[in-house]
Amino acid sequence: MRVRKIINRGLNPLTGYEISKVEFGRDLWPDVKTVLAGNKIETVFDVGANEGQSAREFLHLFPGARIFCFEPTPATFGQLRSFADTQPLVTPVNKALGESPGTAAFNENAFHQTNSLLAASPQSADHLGPQVVERLKTIEVEMTTLDGFCREASVNRIDLLKIDVQGYELSVLKGAGELLAGRKIGCVTLEVNFVPLYVNQASFQDLVALFSSHRYDLMGFYSFAHSRENQLMWCELLFAPHR
């Protein structure tokens, strides 16, 4: 404590910054609330909603917020829609999100939480097991963009954008160029892979570069997943507009 005070006496007058005890960066959702402090959380987008697991959590974390859930897989979307039918604030959308509107080939795998617009990489079975990423079939799904959907739905701002699309994150974000450029997204949480799970998956470096181009800062790392050999496989990231 004494050392920190001594450093701050010299650092603050020169730079305007000071060293403090770190509390931020431990838990994702408290940090999201800290980032959005002073702003009422009214609109949440859950991209890659699966059966609505995150939406259930959002209803408790952000009471009163509208939650738009995007899920392209028909069977999984059926579960999501059944849940949404009991929740007036949850809007299910049976579409994928990407860089441009149209249709796209979507891979349904043996374990539905690994379904993706990207094919599983040859190395993915080594990390997840062949029974998890085995492709059962490929279907055609409808795709739109975040910018396009928000224009059509008259959504002017997204307070929280959560993305879990199995390696396809960069394409989703490229379809939100207008929203990001206008700083109309309060914060973004997404998962990034550090091992090759999908062909052409988004890299950490590419994600940071895209957010940096729109003056969004990397705020924290969360929910680390390691292999048996202690290799970091993936984690969640939090980005927010630069202040």
What does this structure look like?
By secondary structure, the protein is α/β, with parallel strands linked by helices. It has one domain (21-241): Vaccinia Virus protein VP39 (Rossmann fold), CATH 3.40.50. The chain contains ten helices and ten strands. The protein has a seven-stranded mixed β-sheet with strand order 3-2-1-7-8-10-9. A three-stranded mixed β-sheet has the order 4-6-5. A hairpin with a 5-residue loop joins strand 9 and strand 10 (232-241). The mean pLDDT is 91.
The end-to-end distance, rounded to whole angstroms, is 27 Å
CATH topology: Rossmann fold
Radius of gyration: 19 Å
Q: State the share of residues found in helices, binned by percent.
A: 25-40%
Biggest sheet character: 7 strands, mixed
CATH class group: Alpha Beta
* Molecular shape: globular
Q: Extract low-pLDDT stretches.
A: none
CATH architecture field: 3-Layer(aba) Sandwich
The sequence of SSEs as H and E is HHEHEHEEEHHEHEHHEHEE
Structure summarized in a few sentences:
The protein is α/β, with parallel strands linked by helices. It has a single domain (21-241), classed as Rossmann fold, CATH 3.40.50. Helix content is 33%, strand content 29%.
